[in-house]
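Researcher: Let's do a round of design. I'm pasting the structure tokens now; please hold your answer until I've finished.
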């Protein structure tokens, strides 16, 4: 296989707490559907693969997001000719380990001459032509050995982004490509007065968090500026299956636990900029990290009073208000400057000036042990999905949908029994040593401490209602004995 000239490396993770209740820990921002029905992850992958020379795609994500990521790519028809590779982290360790992991893996695959294009999965860029021009310039500079980052020309004095101070020009703008500059320093999110000064100065850009470099250049930078991170990641790559250039690659949790938790900016880019090793391509494309509900609201066209939204809504004497409604009509009367997000199990009502504090709601829910910080009422699983229809003391009712040919794990529960009623399709049930099929309008019962499995042997989705009864109904009361999706023996 010919080595690619450009390898997009997508980093898909993060909690997206400021976009609760749509973004939750089990389904974070990259997987959240935008008003147009697409996801940020799908858009990022398509944008990357539309670039010249990008024939292969590498995605670094959490092990728990693997099946969801595959589903997003399938629905977005992401099928690069060079294949899809998933490097699966057992838990988060920030961006520095992820980047050097991708670089070392590319070297192990013989792609040391390619340019890695590091893209967070949760950015929105609409101007593909301008983005491609910036990437083409970054590839030119990266092939000279520089570490390249993409700066966004500020449009206003933003306090929520980091900045980069640009120095001397290292490559002038041409008819079809923007200029590149030496990065003098990376700057933390500034106060408003400082942000205004940066805007007036003209040589400061927003730090987009996107990068381009050869594997050799970034590994060398880690050796100089973050040798501890590099030393911790090397054994991980050495333990991966040699020659596995496509498919799912799982990372050893014991080895990964020794890796420092640090961002690529702190670990490498900031000291490398001081050492004169970093260049900035000043992008002319539109860019948003969709980091708040105001950013989401900006994706929908507002009416003459500044109201916008998604779903059924009625606005009476309302101004500057965004409403997201999923299953019912939301009516607003006599209100201004609100964001209202209505989902099946949670409603957010916030003033536009306080949207940065939505993350505090997530922290409070987590402190209370409430599942709403992590799970939606409908939860995706590799075999399909389930929706909680109702629950109370001693019972929970779910709607379960199983994909054709899919199967739940062979499992048991210590503290609950389950009653299954088939609504549509055929269910193949394993109950201890018995295996039997039941069809629509038929039911069966799974007692406590009984090994069982549910399968869909048909070609149509299996839909059933499950009634759980017991003194504890948490999702962690599962002991797995066999699972076709490689999930751990104990729940999740």
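Researcher: That's everything. Go ahead.
Model: Designed sequence:
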């Amino acid at each position: 296989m010919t080595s690619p000239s450009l390898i997009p490396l997508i980093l898909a993770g993060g909690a997206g707490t400021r976009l609760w209740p749509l973004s939750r820990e089990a389904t974070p921002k990259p997987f959240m559907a935008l008003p147009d029905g697409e996801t940020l992850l799908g858009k990022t992958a398509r944008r990357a693969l539309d670039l010249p020379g990008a024939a292969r795609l590498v995605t670094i994500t959490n092990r728990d997001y693997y099946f969801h990521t595959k589903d997003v790519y399938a629905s977005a028809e992401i099928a690069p000719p060079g294949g899809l590779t998933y490097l699966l982290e057992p838990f988060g360790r920030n961006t520095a380990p992820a980047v050097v992991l991708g670089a070392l893996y590319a070297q192990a695959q013989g792609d040391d001459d390619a340019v890695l294009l590091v893209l967070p999965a949760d950015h929105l860029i609409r101007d593909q032509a301008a983005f491609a021009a910036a990437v083409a310039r970054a590839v030119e500079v990266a092939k000279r050995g520089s570490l390249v980052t993409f700066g966004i020309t500020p449009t206003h004095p933003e306090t929520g982004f980091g900045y980069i101070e640009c120095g001397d020009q290292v490559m002038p703008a041409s008819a079809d490509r923007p200029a590149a500059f030496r990065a003098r320093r990376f700057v933390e999110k500034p106060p408003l007065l400082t942000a205004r000064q940066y805007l007036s100065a003209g040589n400061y850009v927003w730090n987009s968090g996107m990068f381009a470099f050869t594997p050799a250049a970034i590994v060398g930078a880690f050796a100089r500026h973050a040798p501890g991170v590099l030393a911790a990641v090397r054994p991980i790559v050495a333990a991966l299956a040699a020659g596995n250039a496509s498919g799912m690659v799982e990372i050893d949790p014991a080895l990964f636990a020794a890796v420092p938790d640090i961002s690529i900016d702190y670990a490498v880019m900031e000291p490398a900029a001081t050492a004169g090793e970093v260049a900035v391509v000043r992008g002319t494309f539109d860019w948003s990290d969709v980091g708040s509900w105001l950013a989401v609201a900006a994706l929908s066209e507002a009416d003459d009073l500044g109201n916008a939204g998604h779903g059924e809504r009625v606005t009476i004497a309302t101004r500057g208000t965004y409403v997201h409604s999923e299953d019912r009509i939301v009516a607003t009367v006599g209100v201004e400057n609100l964001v209202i997000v209505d989902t099946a199990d949670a409603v957010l009502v916030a003033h536009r000036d306080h949207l940065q504090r939505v993350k505090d709601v997530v922290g409070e829910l987590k402190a209370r042990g409430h599942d709403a910080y992590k799970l939606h009422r409908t939860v995706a699983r590799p075999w399909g999905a389930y929706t909680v229809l109702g629950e109370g003391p001693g019972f929970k009712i779910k709607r379960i949908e199983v994909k054709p040919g899919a199967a739940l794990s062979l499992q048991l529960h210590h503290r609950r029994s389950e009653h299954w009623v088939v609504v549509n399709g055929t269910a193949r049930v394993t109950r201890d040593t018995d295996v039997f099929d039941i069809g629509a309008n038929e039911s069966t019962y799974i007692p406590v401490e009984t090994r069982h499995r549910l399968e869909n042997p048909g070609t149509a989705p299996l839909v059933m209602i499950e009634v759980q009864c017991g003194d504890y109904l948490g999702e962690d009361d599962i002991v797995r004995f066999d699972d076709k999706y490689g999930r751990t023996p104990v729940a999740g």
